[in-house]
Amino acid sequence: MDFETLRQNLISIIRSKGISDERVLEAMRKVERHKFIPRSLWDEAYEDYPVPIGEGQTISQPYTVAFMTELLDVEPGNKVLEVGTGSGYQAAILAQMGAEVYTVERIHSLYEKAKKVLQELGYENIKVFYADGTQGLPEFAPYDRIIVTASGQLQQPLIDQLKVGGVLVAPVDDGGWGSTMVRLTKVGDKDYITERYGGFSFVPLVKGTR
Ligand code: SAH
User: Fold this and answer.
1) Domain span holding position 146
2) Alpha-carbon gap, residue 107 to 204, rounded angstroms
3) Is residue 208 within 8 Å of residue 132, measured between CB atoms?
4) How confident is the model at residue 201, as a pLDDT?
5) Side-by-side strand order, sheet with 100-105
6) Count of structural domains, the chain
7) pLDDT at position 198, please?
8) Mean pLDDT, the chain cut into blocks of 10 residues (210 residues total)
9) pLDDT at 58
10) Is 205 part of any domain?
11) Percentages helix, strand, coil for the chain, rounded to the nearest 5?
């Protein structure tokens, strides 16, 4: 399969859906999404939908990854915390954009798989942790950016671990169908601006590890 052409087509689709940040599009053109999903599903790797990665979890839809990454507005050198490593794909996109990534996964088998693939692909600026990400990762705080890739409530420990001037992007359950994407910008120690966007579909944010 000509994955490079398939990736190029996927980028055109994402662009046509309204993503315009060239840094995001370029990172998605480079990162090999197929490497993050089971080989039996490789022919679906560059379709714009989520794909199962085991343990009842999914690699997010490419458009959703692009949308969240655009909202996050990552700068090279930013220290970024990701809650919900899953396949490792979102972490790879952030690293490709020059971020220093700390990513946390609560399911051990997914943590191990993601760690392995990221190592094989040579992403040295990603550190993978097995923990409950609702508590953040206080050892390395504060962060310039925080991204949560499972849906729940906004977690206070995460807001506390964000730098003033930093941005957090997270899907939030607010009772209706699907999730609302929230971008929180920390403008002062206890002072935030929040913006909300459209309906998205996510696996749930769950406390504890397994
Ligand atoms: N960013 C991932 C998306 C995976 S789906 C990717 O690019 O593939 C979301 C992931 O969040 C799942 O793997 C799920 O196990 C994980 N998750 C859910 N609650 C969590 C928590 N409290 N801490 C850490 N990870 C969590």
Assistant:
1) 3-200
2) 13
3) yes
4) 83
5) 126-130, 100-105, 79-83, 143-148, 162-172, 179-188, 191-200
6) 1
7) 82
8) 95 97 98 98 97 96 98 98 98 98 98 98 98 98 98 97 98 86 96 92 91
9) 95
10) no
11) 35, 30, 35
- For residue 169, the cross-strand partners are 147, 183
Whichever domain contains 195, its CATH number is: 3.40.50.150
- Residue 156 included in any domain: yes
Q: Which atom of ligand 1 is nearest to the CA of 58?
A: 5
Report which secondary-structure segment, H or E, holds 74: none
- Domain membership of residue 102 (yes or no) is yes
Q: Is residue 66 part of a domain?
A: yes
Predicted local confidence at residue 175, as pLDDT: 77
Whether the CB-CB separation of 71 and 197 falls below 8 Å is answered with yes
Give the pLDDT confidence score for residue 174 in this predicted structure: 81
Element (H, E) at 83: strand 79-83
Q: 147 CB under 6 A from ligand 1? A: no
Residue ranges with strand state E in 26-68: 51-54, 57-59
Residues 25 and 66 sit within 8 Å (Cβ to Cβ): yes
Answer whether 64 contacts ligand 1 (Cβ < 6 A). no
**Ligand 1 pocket residue status of 171, Cβ below 6 Å:** no
Other Cβ atoms less than 10 A from the Cβ of 59: the count is: 22
Quote the pTM value.
0.97
